[in-house]
Amino acid sequence: MTKAIAGFSKLSKEEKIDWIASTHFSNADDAVKTIKKYWNSDADLQKLHDEFIENTITNFYLPFGVAPNFVINGKNYTIPMTIEESSVVAAASKSAKFWSTRGGFKATVLNSEKIGQVHFMFSGDKGKLETFFVQIKSKLFSDTESITKNMQKRGGGILDIELRDKTAELENYYQLHATFETKDSMGANFINSCLEQFAKTLKEEALQFELFSATEKNIQVVMSILSNYVPNCIVRAEVSCPVQDLKEDKNISQEEFAEKFVRAVKIAEIEPYRAVTHNKGIMNGIDAVVLATGNDFRAVEAGIHAYASRSGKYSSLSHAKVENGIFTFWIEIPLALGTVGGLTSLHPLVKIALEMLGKPSAHELMQIVAVAGLAQNFAALRSLTTTGIQQGHMKMHLNNIINQFETTEAERALIKNHFKENTVSHSAVVDFIENLKK
Ligand code: MEV
Predict the structure, then answer these.
(1) Is 55 domain-assigned?
(2) Is 314 found in the same domain as 244?
(3) For the residues 421-434, what does the mean pLDDT come to?
(4) Active-site residue, selected from the candidate residues 97, 139, 260, 280
(5) Are 123 and 215 in contact (CB under 8 A)?
(6) Whose CA is nearest to atom 2 of ligand 1?
(7) What is the pLDDT of residues 41-79, one digit of tens each?
(8) CATH number, domain at 281?
């Protein structure tokens, strides 16, 4: 076990690496070499990345791929995706192409309200607290004017503030529950700044409210923070076509495919074990675009999974039906995204991603991200209900397996050719390579 170190964050980058290498690795030189191999030769760019977080010692690469041919609301997009899983971009591209000749994807933002809360403890008369809140509500708005001025110019701001009584669940616990419109920014800083001002006003005003007793005047603010659960910030994406247009080349009729597909979605609606994997496949598409566009994928993940459980039981985010010979497949998800602020103007590749998408508004980005999730889900279910998932997965994974061995270009070509016709498994590839080397 290594010893603890004091003042690590104050060391220079070189000193940090030296300490880590000498205390954590059997071969310190090799470790240092690998760490430094990923430094960028452009010192300014490296500095930019170093300063995103504390204690940066190197960069961690993820592939930045693109999925072309997406038609969304009649417009063509090439979607940037940042992800390590080998089959995701290929699957997205396949779905995009499939639906591009069947009317494309339709997407709509249903609403875009964000939420933040001041959690506080009040011990006393609830009626008096309500009177107090009514009295200070306009002051809560006016005290935040300097924070909301710019947001209001862009058409956003604080929508409403409510007092919520949570004492049935936790003694003396109340909230200021506020709703916000943050336009093209994700809005975390804006919301949190407003909330902290609400908390300050709440405490100060309580001290001066004549109806409160000495105890009641002493409101305890526990915390002020936005919620990543945004059930009123919803985007819907959909595809549909006549069942007979679902032409499949996989030894299955269109009708049988549609029926199996709808059933697979129904299973994810009622069976949480399946729903989690089903939704994970959706998140393959969503996270990849969220990450490429510099948005907070942890916030998106937390909010979406909470939404998937809103009935009290974890369920599918997507739905499918066949009605009057028309196959329809759709998704509705909460997404709090930004196209200004945060990393969007800092990370050069995020800027590239956003420009590739035509510099979308936050609403447009919500639509694109929801479509990426639906497309991914369609590709997964299409494989699962026909050929099985491993065929495509392992084909894509073949490169990763080959890369674990030293092979010549000619050998790679032979291996790939062989596995066009044969089932890919780790051991089959290893056996084939070993035979080839003999
Ligand atoms: C793998 O990353 C995602 C899938 O498991 C999704 C699904 O099962 O629907 C293929």
Answers:
(1) no
(2) yes
(3) 89
(4) 280
(5) yes
(6) 281
(7) 999 999 999 999 999 999 999 999 999 999 999 999 999
(8) 3.90.770.10
